[in-house]
Hints:
Order of helices and strands: HHHHHHHHHEEEHHHHHH
Shape: globular
CATH topology of the largest domain: hpI Integrase, Chain A
CATH architecture of the largest domain: Orthogonal Bundle
Strand order of the largest sheet: 1-2-3
Radius of gyration: 23 Å
Distance between the termini: 74 Å
CATH superfamily of the largest domain: Intergrase catalytic core
Number of helices: 15
Structural class: mainly alpha
Number of domains: 2
Strand content: under 5%
Amino acid sequence: MSFESFRAGMISRLSPVLPEDHLQEVLRALDEMGTFWEFSPKSTAIITAGGVPDEVRNYLACKSIENIKKSTLQNYFYLLRTFFNVVRLPVDRITAVEARKFLAWYKTNKNVTNDTLNHKRIILNSFFDWCADEYPEVRNPMKHIKAIKCEDPERLPMTALELERIRKSCNTVREKALVDFLYSTAARVSEVCDLNIDDISFTDHTVHIRCGKGGKGRTTFMNAEAEVSLRAYLESRQDDDPALFASAYKPHGRMKKRAVEIEITKIVSRCEVSVHVTPHVFRHTAASLALQRGMPIDQVQKWLGHARIQTTLRYAKTLNFDVKLSHQKYCA
């Protein structure tokens, strides 16, 4: 089946039930995603290697209008393609047994942690849950598979002193701006990479994150140090790229997540810290220090963009370490 045929079929199916503006939005998403889809005629026979059933394409089309990032949709596609390449059955014939076998195969062959494996389980559950709503003959086999238990490793933040050591170890205006911005905004590294210069308001010291985790936008803030560092960095740039943080070398272009990780590792190697520092540790440190200094946890939740306060409580767990130190100091 050609992409054009599939697109025409979607128009025929959706035009009677969707307003014109919504239909055009779906079609724009289809055109964008067509670059990494594979198309084959629907069949109730065993799925051939390399193919995906129509249900996967329809699922991704629906998810694409939920403001989900293209990279996330690609991850969904890659997992579902792998699933059907391994299971080789049509959607309505898959049972919990086949799903469990796939998860066992994935853990062994991909050598992933239980945390990663549980994330794959969640994606599969989302797909089959959608299928069960859309197609009467399909049931969700994932409902019979419990959440995979995984360790919740203790992630210790930096101390205020360690944060200052890292700031002092920066050699360039871009390094200083990156460190100050990661800490001040508590933004995820993917969110920082997606930001454009026009997402920054120096007037009211705000940062508009257009598409955070789960496709949700939010506003975060810069402190004075971050604002001064960022201004100096932007004034030093000699490119016209719209990205907030761009490559230092021609042809420049937006910094990617891996480039930010390498930059932070390089900075941290110049000083002494007691924890393993990644870009996410700046977010963790900002939240932990804010809680230590009395910021209400519901405000921290909103600042970080957490959908559930239980997620924010993970950051509060590290405060127990401070209680332990205080107990040893005052109650020994």
